[in-house]
Amino acid sequence: MKPCRECRREISEQAFACPHCGAPYPARESWDGWGYEYKSKLAVAGLPLLHISFKFRPNRRPVVACGIIAIGQFGCGVVCIAQFGLGVFSMAQFTVAGFALAQFAVAYSLIAQFGVYLAEGHGQLVFSLSKLLGTSTIHIAVMDSRFGCLPSSCS
Ligand SMILES: [Zn+2]
Fold first, then answer.
1. How far, in Å, is the centroid of ligand 1 from the Cα of 61?
2. Does residue 73 have a pLDDT over 60?
3. CA separation for the pair 95, 61 (Å, rounded)
4. What pLDDT was estimated at residue 3?
5. Cα 27 to middle of ligand 1, angstroms
6. What residues have a C-beta under 5 A from ligand 1, the ion?
7. Over the stretch 81-124, which tens digit does the pLDDT of each residue have?
């Protein structure tokens, strides 16, 4: 038995929540959220080289992975692998990036299912930003033959 971190009443060390006050993981000295987080000791320009975060703070706010290499549900980094990502090189479901591999992306150059690009884009529905802004006709790049298009369905 240990005192609860919050209310100081005796609780089991194995308790997931204090039966008295409801504090999560009450036996731990300190506790800053659910989930998993890793931050490398090595830092470059004030950013950790690697930051992995699939973590939520006690108030349920997600912890954004932010590092040279960022991996997480929400990520921000030079190299970013995330569900929602912001990066120079980004692999994500939703992303704004320099170079992106994503389902939904806005990027300088991208491979995406749906995307808006500046320089080059490949995918199912990708649009050039300059054409979107420059002309009234929306240019739709029909699925590139290199991406999953069967010869029989290509004319
Ligand atoms: Zn308690």
1. 22
2. yes
3. 19
4. 94
5. 9
6. 4, 6-7, 18, 20-21, 23
7. 999 999 999 999 999 999 999 999 999 999 999 999 999 999 99
Mean pLDDT of the chain: 88
Residue 59 buriedness (CB in 10 A; 0-12 / 13-18 / 19+): exposed
∠ CA 36-42-47, nearest 5°, is 75
Q: Residue 17 Cα, ligand 1 centroid: separation in angstroms?
A: 8
CA of 11 to the centre of ligand 1 (A): 8
CA–CA distance, 76 with 63 (Å, rounded to integer): 11
Q: How far is the CA of 6 from the centre of ligand 1 (A)?
A: 5
User: Which pTM value belongs to this model?
Assistant: 0.73
Cβ contacts of 135 within 8 Å, gap of 6 or more: none
* Distance from the alpha carbon of residue 25 to the mean position of ligand 1, in angstroms: 10
Q: What are phi and psi of 52, to 5 degrees?
A: -110, 130
The partner residues of 10 in beta bridges, in order of sequence, read: 3
Q: What is the DSSP letter of 139?
A: P
CA of 10 to the centre of ligand 1 (A): 8
